[in-house]
Each structure stands twice: as structure tokens, then as C-alpha cells.
Amino acid sequence: MATQRIRDFLATHCFDGPCLVVDLDVVRENYLNFEKALPQSRIFYAIKANPAPEILSLLASLGSSFDAASVAEIEMALKAGATCDRISFGNTIKKERDIAHAYALGISLYAVDCVEEVEKIARAAPGARVFCRVLTDGKGAEWPLSRKFGCVPAMAVDVLRRAHQLGLQAYGVSFHVGSQQTDLSAWDRALSDAATVFRHLEQEGISLKLVNMGGGFPTRYLKDVPTEQAYGTAVFDSLKKYFGNRIPETIIEPGRGMVGNAGVIRTEVVLISKKADNDNVRWVYLDVGKFNGLAETMDEAIRYPIETPHGDKAMEPCILAGPTCDSADVLYEKTPYMLPLSLTIGDELLIHGTGAYTATYASVAFNGFEPLRSYVI
Amino acid sequence: MATQRIRDFLATHCFDGPCLVVDLDVVRENYLNFEKALPQSRIFYAIKANPAPEILSLLASLGSSFDAASVAEIEMALKAGATCDRISFGNTIKKERDIAHAYALGISLYAVDCVEEVEKIARAAPGARVFCRVLTDGKGAEWPLSRKFGCVPAMAVDVLRRAHQLGLQAYGVSFHVGSQQTDLSAWDRALSDAATVFRHLEQEGISLKLVNMGGGFPTRYLKDVPTEQAYGTAVFDSLKKYFGNRIPETIIEPGRGMVGNAGVIRTEVVLISKKADNDNVRWVYLDVGKFNGLAETMDEAIRYPIETPHGDKAMEPCILAGPTCDSADVLYEKTPYMLPLSLTIGDELLIHGTGAYTATYASVAFNGFEPLRSYVI
Q1: Are residues A322 and A250 part of one domain?
Q2: Active-site residue numbers of B?
Q3: Alpha helices in B87-212, H assignment, sequence order
Q4: Which end of chain A is more exposed for a tag (fewer CB within 10 A), N or C?
């Protein structure tokens, strides 16, 4: 829920239009919780979740490393004070000239999931370390995980062998269990696959060193989620189970788990109406929607907690929609959202848990609406 | 398909990264075709489809009117040379202070779909003209049409009566048959509803004057679509059928139909790979995706024609995806896209029919990738 610092900031500042406020104290607390829960793992913050310079600087000062999706994100991390040994180029889809650019900036750790990408890296970043991403089933994750990234474990063996042959350092295996993952056993299945790849290559004399356990650590929306500590314990148990006394280096890449609960969007009710006299749900239109911050309501995947000025007495189901002239700009319709009967046009609402994957998803100017303004305090 | 002017422009300019090129000659031709097909209708270009200043200026000079979704779009149209009598505030969801702002700029034509919005307009824009949007079923449209906008015809009567009581000019009825609508009978059903609202209010002494027939006019993607002329004939036949000798003023709001086929996106193949040795589809990753221009591939709704340097011999099914580290950034997967076997990393592709709903949907900086660059020639 919104911290007192966020409430004070909103109470003392005046804005026309929706805005996101992120509390750095919460980010710091999340970082320290991850560090405590997984003391043997290095933390690579997934910059894409929220690349605000203040967040990157704070995390850099706390000792965090960074998972970058593009050259621009690498440059943001460097600017925030991270050294290049603390940055990975974690996107498996890279132009060869972008790899060369990253290599020139000193980046030496790269994600791959196919032989074609290994060949690019061998040409553009000779001698670099690569880790190969393996597919997981994404079971238990709330944000859909497609087969877009990763390959089957058997192919990962081929990919890393090829890297070794081309003079790269076949460094490890990565996986991602799916964003907002609340099923602890998802990490267990993925670690079992990772260990299989380690064993196969060991037999060929190639010693992998790293397991990148990705992100997926959830933030609390409407339902409770396991604590960082519970994740840490589950992951460490699986590591012992599959790697015995030879536990490899591990890294984690929290994004949502690092900043999701640190942010709150303030929005205004623009209109409340019905489509026919006998409708039993009201439509509630906000000044924030799918195209200026709430893209993750796509398919109603992420359900944010919403705070109104009316408390929680006398609720009724509402369809929530954004402000644009686009039919697709509807947030919750299949499963209507319970909101107070006394909700009124002009009311200000707080949408909690919106620190991750909001501001940067906003469109440049769809319908003439400006992108979501963001304040980091 | 790409015009020679666009091909020449791309051949003589060098870009790093994807870009959209829009040919104003095509926009002009589309405008003149609409004018010819529907000589009795005024054309209100839906600015949201593509608000590039060059497009707005051209259309303003040709005599077009403009459908604006926000105060910012009203200001763009004014800046392009449109007078305020040629601009409607067509969004049914407006803040009262934005209505006041528009009214101060001279805007006198407003969309509504409920009594609550009428009351705002009566306070903030006294005496203005309002038209009420009625729901349609969206049958036959390729881009999903929700119930977000409009009310049932019976309620539209109440809404317009209320406008009249509050001193506004109850001016007419609007509808939208759904974007990329290829079923000509959709307009017939909606016009029948509009005529019902006219008749009811006529009996109460309130004479409506306008039918706003909205947009929905399709652009040619992979399949052929009816010509503007075919639409014009069908619409005029329905108008005669339902309004007899008292055909009202009509306006149309083409957006996609005005600029869709005028634009081409140039993109680069970043990676081609498989997930397992025995996979029978390849994954093709482009440097443009859902978050930097191709948002309308959501649920694979819009299927763009794609031109490769290899012609159309020896094709195979591919899954197409964008460049970001987001699992949801997949363009066509449920129905794979046929692409040449000889397609290679680094190939440049042209994505046709991308003049509408691309550049402005692009996110500000997701994954550090810049928004889609746009050139209007």
C-alpha cells in the first residue's frame, strides 16, 4: 500500500493528470530483503521494470548489478554508477552492432538461446562469457510467458558447446519461471533442467560456473504472495538437491519484485455511466488506461489494488476503462472490479503496486494524452 | 504496397533502427476518394490514427474537418490550419475542465453517451451542440469493438432530451461500426438505430440534424477490402431507406481508411532461431514489435503484409516476434506467418499498411528502445 511518504507527497503537490510516485525507501527495503533471503546470489536488477535514474543510482550505491535489455539500458546503468562488470546484456535478441557497442563499453556477460546468437557474439565480443537460457513452462505465473526466450535443455548443450568452440567462455545457464510467479516449485523444476545441462557439458570437459535464476519474484497485488525469505529457502534447497556440494555462482534478476510495491499511481475518475437503464454494472472511466501506464492489464493479467476515498462499504461491480477513444482501452471487464457505490466523477483513486512496468510501457502520445508522469521520492 | 516515393526515400536515407514512412500523396488520394464516394458527407479525420503535423496540414488544406480525442488533438488541428467549426471533440469521456478548455478554444460540437457527460457539457460549454453515440454490435470488424462507447438507442433518446432541457443543442446521433469493418451491412443496421432515435425525439418536438457515421473504413492488409465507392453506395442506400426524403447532415470519421495504406515500416531481422532441433517453425525476431509500433498485432488482430528481399518462393511458417525482453512481445504465433526459407539475419523487411495506429501507440522507452521514428514525405 502507499507509504506515508507517498501520501505526503501527493497531498502537497498538485498535478493535472495521472502520475506515478515511487518511494525509494521501499526499493531499498526490497533490495536488502533479497540480499538477506539469497545471500549467496548476486542481484541483477531488471532495468526494464523501471529505469528511473534515481532507482538505478540507489541500487548501484547498494551494490546491485544490472540486467540490461539494450545498449540504452547499459548506458543508463553505467551513468547510474555501475561498473561494467556489474552489467549483463540479458536480451537474447541482439543486433550484432549492438553487441559490438556493448563490448566496446566493457560488457562481458551476454545471454543467448541459439547458435546463431553465439556466432554473433563470437564475432562482435570475442572471449566474452555467455549463458544460455532454457525454456520453462511458465506454470503458475500471472503474466503470460510465451516460448519467445530460451531453448530446450538438449539444445542448450549444443549452444554452449558451440560457444566454447568459438573461443567464448561457456559460462552458464539461465531461465525465467514467468513474471509474478507465485509457485515456489517452478524454480525447482528449472534448476533440475539447469543441472542437467551442467552435467552433460562437464562430461565433455566444459565446466559451467553460473546459474542465472532470472526474475519472476512477485509483488503483492490483490492476493498475498510468498516472502523473499520463502523464495530464498526454496531456491537454496533445490540448489543443494541438484548440485550437491558444488553449488554454482547464482544470480537473480528481480524487476517487479524490486520496484512493484514501491509505486502508486494517482488517477481521477473521469466518468461513471451505464449503457442502458437496466444494466447491472456501471462503467467507470479513469484518466489512466492501457496506453498511458496500465498496459499490464492486457487480458486482465495483473489486477491492481485500488484505493478510493470511500473506504470499502457498499460495493458494486464496475467495468474499469481508460480515457482513450480506443475500444481496447478497457482494464477490467471480464471480471468486473468491486468499487464503492458512492464513487463519484472527480474522485481521486490510488492504484497500488504500480512501480514496475507502467511508466515505460506508456505510449508517446496516443489520443494526444501525454505519457505517464513519474516522480521518484 | 509501398509507393515509389517511399522506396526512393528509403533507398537514399540511412537509419539505424526501424522507421515509418508515410506518403502524403496516398493520403491526398484517400481523401479525394472519400469525398467522391460520399459527396454529401463532411469528412472528420480521426486524428488519433496518425497526428503527424504534415498529415494534418495537408488534410486541413484539402478542406477536411477533424475528430479530436483530447484537448491536445484539438490544438494540433488548430495549429494545422483547421478552424474551430471544423473540429469535433469526439471522445465521450472528457474531464469537465477539458470541455471548458475546448469551449474556450471555440469548439462547439461534442460527443456524449450518457446523461452525466451531458451535464458536464451544459456546465462547461453552454449552448454547445452534442451528438449521442449509440452502441453497435461490432460484427464484421477486425479490431475488437467493446461496449466501451455508446448506449442503447432507447437511452440515447433520454440523453438527447436531457441535453435539450439543459439548453444544449441536441444535434444528432453517432455510431461506430468497429475498426477495419469489411461488412457493408454493419452501416445499415446502425443507420436503422439512428433513425429510430430521430423519430422518437421528433415526436417530442426535438429535431436532430446530424448522423455521425464514425470510422471503420478499412485499409487493405492481406485481404482485399471493399472500395470507398462501395461504402458510399451502401451507406447512401441505407440513408434513403431509413430517412426517406429527409436525409440528415452526415459526417464520417475515417482514420485507418485515410492513412493506413499510406505508410510503410522498415524493419530489420535481428535473429532467426529454433527452440529445439525438431521444431517445425522458426522464430523470426524483428527490431519492431508490440511496444514500438505494432501494438495492433494484439491478439493477432491486424495482419500486415510483409515484403522481404526474397520474393515469395519456398516459404515456411514462422513465428514473428519483437525485440524486447517481454514474453508478450510476439506478433504472430497462433497463426504463423509464411516467410521465405532464404530469410536471413540482417535482412530488411517492409511492413505495409502501417500508416495508422503505429507511431503514436509506441511506448516512450520500453526496454530502452526508442519510439518508432516517423517520416512524412
Answers
A1: no
A2: 325
A3: 96-104, 115-124, 153-165, 185-203
A4: N
**Scanning every residue of chain A, which has its alpha carbon at the shortest distance from the alpha carbon of B364?**
A364
Radius of gyration of chain A (CA): 22
Contact B364 A367 (CB under 8 A): no
Task: Please check the confidence at residue A145 and state whether its pLDDT lies above 80.
Answer: no
For residue A141, pLDDT beyond 70: no
Quick check: B139 contacting A, CB < 8 Å?
A: no
Nearest CA in chain A to B271: A93
Q: Do both A353 and A281 map to the same domain?
A: yes
Nearest neighbour of A325 by CB, restricted to B51, B69, B274: B69
Predicted confidence (pLDDT) at residue B327 exceeds the cutoff of 90: no
Q: Does residue B7 form part of some domain? A: no
Whether B301 and B223 map to the same domain: the answer is no
Mean pLDDT of A68-86: 97
Based on the domain organization, do A301 and A349 belong to the same domain? yes
Asked if A371 reaches chain B (Cβ–Cβ under 8 Å), the answer is yes
| Structural domain count of chain A | 2
- Same structural domain for residues B366 and B235? no
Cβ pair B367, A91 in contact under 8 A = yes
Domain co-membership, B245 together with B356: no
Beta strands in chain A, from DSSP E residues, in sequence order: 19-22, 41-46, 65-68, 87-89, 109-112, 129-133, 169-174, 210-212, 249-252, 263-273, 282-286, 306-307, 315-321, 330-340, 348-352, 373-376
In chain A, what residues touch B120 (CB-CB under 8 Å)?
Answer: 345
**Least trusted range by pLDDT, from A34-43, A106-115, A204-213:** A34-43
pLDDT at B222 over 70: no
Task: State which of A239, A258, A277 marks the end of a domain.
Answer: A258
Question: Is the Cβ pair B273, A151 closer than 8 Å?
Answer: yes
- Euclidean distance between CA atoms B123 and B114, whole angstroms: 15
One domain for residues A284 and A352: yes
Residue entry with cell 519492431: B288
* Mean pLDDT, chain A, whole residue set: 93
Range of the domain at A118: 25-258
Please say if A318 is a catalytic residue. Answer: no
Residue where the block lists cell 434513403: B240
- Given a contact cutoff of 8 angstroms between Cβ atoms, the answer to whether A25 and A3 are in contact is yes
**Domain C-terminal end among A258, A281, A303:** A258
Residues of B in contact with A46 (CB under 8 A): 325
Q: Would an 8 Å CB–CB cutoff place A328 in contact with chain B?
A: yes
Q: What is the CATH number of the domain that holds A179?
A: 3.20.20.10
Question: Does a structural domain hold residue A83?
Answer: yes
What gap in Å lies between CA B320 and CA B269, rounded to an integer? 10
Q: Is residue A347 part of a domain?
A: yes
Binding-face residues of B in 227-266 toward A, CB within 8 A: none
Phi-psi region for residue B89, left (φ > 0), alpha (ψ -120 to 50) or beta? beta
